[in-house]
Specification:
With 657 residues, the protein is an alpha+beta fold. The protein has 21 helices and ten strands. A hairpin with a 2-residue loop joins strand 2 (367-380) and strand 3 (383-390). Helix 3 (53-100) runs parallel beside helix 6 (168-194), helix 5 (115-154) packs antiparallel against helix 6 and helix 7 (214-236) packs across helix 8 (242-275). The longest helix is centred in the first third of the chain and has 48 residues, at 53-100. It is elongated.
């Protein structure tokens, strides 16, 4: 809904009488736009500029492109996570498929096929699968894009002429990534297939390696060392190149995940045996539980590979949960020790609002100290810094900033600035020293440091009085108002006094400190939900991998299942055995993921500055819920393979080769 007002009316409503934000000028027919621009510039007062309309359009496009690039990079990051998980699933699938065709591969070797030909055939098979999957994935991506567009429109983010564009570059990249990942994931299984000896055709029970061995362990150790080193550089490096640090962090995380995946077969069998022990005590299903436990523990490599995708997804979600919970705990702790105002007034959408509101709140007898807060930028020693403006006479009445030197109240004029202790150390200045600050509208100003404070949690590193703000900045709109209830009034009386202002300014939020804090925490929770929804893609892919592995496992054990059915196992017991086996594998992957996620979360909290997160908080209940949900999801993912196993024809299964 769009609402329009006359200029006089909108100035009356927002208290901006006599002020304009910008003026649109259209050249008369036949007039030279460049000459008009020069004429307008000549009559403008200082601090104002005239620019062509094309410049305004270009700046708007750049701003939108920046937001679009950020959103696109976020989606790309989650897509890379999904592709990374897919690598493990594809590799596991090819291992199982080629493992089931050992006798076929051995016969080919016996008939004269070289190891290179066997390897090439396996890679060619993966190439064909990769091409088909990439085409299907490309079509699925278009459908997901349409869904995202509709979702944005439902949340009020509708954009004009937002069309789905499938560029040739997108098609090429999607196919290359899909085919490349599939072929890459098949290299190790293809190499193992090429090593199948011809004599394996005459031996029953020949299998690929178990996943143990000195070589594998050494590689895992090397990957761990490299991963930890890269993550350490990404988290604590001080190269100044953010892109390089992020690349190191991502590469390090990949190395660590690969190392954990390589370590997993060493303890997957005992872990599965331990986790499956309670299944043997299920009422009426003890035998079924015993067999499910044995199946999960029997093939350590398959259990580890199947659980790898789920491990990665749960690890990322657990890490995000630890960081978010630590951020919330730190935020609430800092707020409790910093914000001593009783009320915080902001606008919906956090946009600036009229500076008359603060005066109207201060005029109410129910309130004592009241100060508006404004945010802007200035240049200090060549760097752009955020600068806050507020009433310095009441700053320490509204915020506990821990003044270590000087007096904030005596700095309430246009010649002074108060700074944080960190900023004072950075610039090498103290109380009484001059700090040059360059403002966009007035140029370079030399301000005297009037006070130094320690706690910069809410106010930032540089603060000037509102009187200085009015002199150095053109925009005098407020961003926030903080207020304390008068000593002879109560919160209830203050609430009643604010009713008239709430009716007059419906776009503003008049909140007590606790309500404001809860709202900020809910925004953080919403952000966590969005992150987890994107990470859910990795979980879904991992669950598809579990379903795929269980289906191939049923196919591989067709004869075994037929024999068990022949000696009396019922369809329900067969179905239960497959489901419980999937539950054990899912539980193993979920627990391993949570452990890895806790480690990543702890490292991330250590790396984040203490000004943002100063304590580690573990959301134990949330993590337990994640593990339970992942295990149940694994059960659901295995329902189709379990149903197929239960429906196998006994005679056909027994005769299956």
């Amino acid at each position: 809904v769009m609402v329009s007002f006359t200029l006089d009316e909108i100035q009356r409503l927002d208290g901006s009488a006599g002020e304009l934000q910008y003026i649109d000028i259209t050249a008369a027919e036949g007039a030279d736009p460049d000459e008009l621009l020069r004429d307008v510039t000549a009559v403008l007062p200082g601090g104002l500029e005239a620019v062509p309309g094309t410049v305004v359009v270009d700046e708007a496009q750049e701003d939108f492109a920046l937001v679009a690039d950020i959103f696109g990079n976020v989606l790309l990051a989650f897509a890379l996570v999904a592709v990374f998980v897919s690598v493990f699933i594809i590799s596991n699938t090819f291992n199982i498929l080629l493992g089931q065709r050992v006798r076929e591969l051995a016969l080919l070797r016996a008939l004269g096929a070289s190891s290179g030909q066997v390897r090439a055939s396996a890679i060619l098979e993966s190439l064909i699968i990769g091409i088909v999957a990439s085409v299907l994935g490309l079509g699925g991506g278009v459908l997901v894009a349409i869904g995202l567009r509709d979702l944005m429109e439902r949340f009020g983010l509708e954009l004009p002429s937002l069309e789905i564009i499938l560029a040739p570059r997108t098609i090429i990249v999607a196919v290359l990534v899909g085919v490349g990942v599939t072929v890459l994931a098949s290299l190790t299984p293809a190499r193992r297939a090429a090593r199948v000896p011809p004599v394996a055709a005459m031996r029953a029970g020949f299998r690929f390696g178990s996943g143990e061995g000195t070589r594998r362990t050494i590689i895992a150790i090397v990957m761990s060392v490299i991963g930890i080193a890269l993550m350490g550089y990404g988290l604590f490096g001080d190269s100044g190149d953010t892109g390089l640090l992020l690349m190191a962090l991502g590469a390090g995380a990949v190395c660590v995940f690969v190392a954990v995946r390589m370590y997993a077969p060493l303890f997957s069998s005992p872990s599965a045996s331990f986790l499956g022990r309670p299944l043997e005590h299920l009422p009426g299903n003890g035998i079924t539980g015993h067999m499910a436990r044995g199946n999960a523990a029997r093939d350590n490599k398959r259990t580890a590979a199947t659980a790898a995708g789920l491990m990665i997804g749960l690890a990322l979600i657990a890490m995000a949960s630890v960081v978010a919970e630590s951020l919330k705990s730190s935020f609430r702790s800092e707020l409790g020790s910093t914000m001593i105002a009783d009320y915080v007034i902001t606008s919906q959408g956090d946009v600036p609002f009229s500076n008359q509101v603060a005066d109207q709140v201060a005029a109410l007898p129910e309130f004592g100290a009241v100060s508006a807060v404004r945010w802007g930028n200035g240049r200090i020693e060549g760097d752009t810094k955020g600068i806050a403006g507020g009433d310095l006479t009441v700053l320490t009445d509204l915020l506990e900033v821990d003044v270590v030197d000087g007096d904030t109240a005596r700095s309430a004029d246009a010649d002074h600035i108060v700074i944080s202790q960190e900023a004072a150390e950075t610039h090498g200045v103290g109380v009484g020293d001059q700090l040059p600050v360059e403002f966009a509208s007035t140029g370079r100003q030399s301000l005297t440091v009037g006070a130094v404070y320690e706690n910069d949690f809410l106010i930032g590193h540089y603060v000037i009085d509102l009187s200085a703000w009015d002199e150095y900045f053109n925009d005098r709109s407020d961003n926030t108002i903080s207020a304390r209830v008068a000593a002879d009034s109560t919160i209830e009386e203050a609430d009643a006094a604010l009713v008239a202002l709430e009716d007059r300014y419906p776009q503003l939020l008049f909140e007590t400190q606790s309500v404001w804090t809860d709202r900020l925490e809910s925004q953080l929770d919403n952000m966590l939900i969005i992150i987890n929804v994107f990470l859910l893609m990795a979980i879904v892919i991992a669950l598809l991998g579990i379903a795929n592995t269980m289906a191939l496992s049923v196919l591989e054990r067709t004869r075994e299942i037929g024999l068990m059915r022949a000696i009396g196992m019922t369809r329900g017991q067969t179905r239960g055995m497959i489901l419980l086996e999937a539950a054990v594998v899912s539980l193993f992957g979920a627990l391993l993921g949570v452990v890895v996620g806790l480690a990543f979360g702890w490292v991330a909290v250590l790396a984040i500055p203490e000004s943002v997160i100063n304590q580690l908080s573990i959301p134990a209940v949330t993590l337990v819920i994640y593990v339970i949900v992942a295990t149940i999801a694994g059960l659901l993912a295995a329902s189709f393979p379990a149903r197929r196993a239960a429906r196998l024809n006994v005679l056909e299964a027994i005769s299956h080769e």
